Amino acid sequence: MKHILLPTDFSDNAFNAIQYAMHFFKEDMATFYLLNTFTPVAYHTGYLIENPTPYGMEDIAMINSNRDIERTEEKIKEKFDNPNHSFVRLSTFNTLVAEIKDVIERYNIDLIVMGTKGATGAKEVFIGTHTMYTIKKVSCPVIAVPANFEFEEPKDILFPTDYNLDIQNKYLPLIKEICNKHISRLHILNAYYGVALDAGQQKTKSDLDVYFENNAHIFHIAEGMDVLEAVEDFQKKHKINLLVMLHNKHSFFENLLFTPVINKVAYHTNVPFLVIPSKERMR
To answer: How much is the pTM?
Structure first.
């Protein structure tokens, strides 16, 4: 039984991500946790000082959240009548990332699926503030689904890596599971700067070759490019359905995650983006 967290603010982007999850896990026995968090605008320090017992605001927000999350569940069941799936509704007065951390621990969450949405709604912002900080702060895999993306089976998966990863990462089997389930081809891409891989990187590459020996996988080298250029160039030449990255503590991913301009990371808006935390982040 899988435990999948689906944060929602009841927007079209959020429901689009929910639909992606329903398709992605249609063959799995899964419990989906529909989470809505709310912090009423008027609930700030000044308001609390002037009104020491402001019960009404939170009560109304809770009623609205419960109503809308129930409607969301009904909408899902109308569109996806899947006996393998069950749902838990969670409405909470809290910030999103803080509540997500708590829910991960409380319900043993395996994966989070979220929609991408810019803080201002601008197309130039490739990934929303909430999604960005969820990826940065939680120790759980996250799939970020671009707005308006229609589900495609992940037949071709792009996995950029510098080979500075731990083959014992407990979430690495998730990539293998996806490859097995969807009969995917895994493209392992390394940006080559003219400096040869050291012994540790070579060993990791060999270990990955063995680990994915029963899955179709291809090693690629992008010469004379940084990672951003390499991924963008690869996607111009090949159809990719899913992008996978390992979130190392001090890696190219940090620059990637906080690069907001679409002309630098345009490819992110095209396909879902699975982020796996490194062992360091899980600590």
So the answer is: 0.84
Tokens of 276: 């796996």
What is the tens place of the pLDDT at every residue in 117-149? Answer: 644 433 333 445 677 767 777 889 999 898 888
Instruction: Return the biggest CA–CA distance within the chain.
Output: 65
Contact criterion met (CB below 8 Å) for 187 and 218: yes
Q: How far apart are CA 118 and CA 65, in angstroms?
A: 22
Residue 190 has what DSSP assignment? E
Residues 63 and 183 in one domain: no
* Token pair listed for 105: 């621990």
Decide if 151 is inside a domain: no
Q: If phi over 0 gives left and psi between -120 and 50 gives alpha, with beta otherwise, what is residue 99? A: alpha
Q: Do 24 and 141 fall into the same domain? A: yes
- Considering the domain architecture, whether residues 165 and 140 belong to the same structural domain is answered as no
Phi first, then psi: give them for residue 13, nearest 5 degrees: -60, -40
Residue in the structure block whose two tokens are 């792009």: 158
- Structurally, the chain folds into a number of domains equal to 2
Which pLDDT does position 247 carry in this prediction? 72
- Secondary structure (3-state) at 153: coil
H or E stretch at 177? helix 172-182
Where does 40-110 have alpha helices with state H? Answer: 45-50, 55-79, 96-107
Query: Are β-strands 273-277 and 142-145 bridged in parallel, bridged antiparallel, or unpaired?
Result: antiparallel
Residue 248 is encoded by which pair of tokens? 């190392």
Q: What is the mean pLDDT of residues 10-30?
A: 95
150 part of a folded domain:
no
Q: What is the mean pLDDT of the chain?
A: 82
Beta-bridge mates of residue 99: none
Residue whose entry in the numeric block shows the structure tokens 């969450």:
109
The answer to the question of residue 187 being in a domain is yes
